[in-house]
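DM from R.C. (forwarded with permission)

"hey, sorry to bug you on a friday — could you get me a structure for this? deadline for the figure draft is monday and I only need the backbone to look sensible"
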Amino acid sequence: MIINNRNRMITRACYVVLLVLVGWLLLVLLQFLRWTGVIDINIGADSQIHQVAWSEEGKVLVIQYIELWGYLVSSLLMIAISSRLMILCIKGIKLKKIFTRKNVRLLWGITFVSLFFELFSSNIPIMFGDREIQFGSNLIVSPLIFLVITLLYDAAVSVSEENELTI
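My reply, with the result:
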């Protein structure tokens, strides 16, 4: 009974995460379309959903393009990898096997991509005229948290595999 309730709760949480990821995807696409001028809407006075202030200086313009594409690619990778992880977790709950090597590989992917995602997402203001690259604590803390979670999950997979062998 308790295990069934826990599985149901984890499954619901995975579905909620998938819903949040769809919302994030829509936001990223809306940002990209607005930043590049494909659509013309203004949301809020100081939001990050307005057209990019492209620089006239060549080096700054290159940095802005790197920022734009880095943010877009790292966001899409985080969404795709996280969605795949949630789908595999839902399937794993049904099959009663959550701790798999596939999930570990996905967590390593999230850990790696999170470093770049944090770098690019914290430097979005560069596209709107800022001239400083920001290096905050989130650039270190978030990837380290993902690293610890990934290592713990990897250890859980190893224990799960050992238990399957001894049975």
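R.C.: lifesaver. The two ends are 23 Å apart (CA to CA).
me: no worries. Residues 55 and 106 are 37 Å apart (CA to CA).
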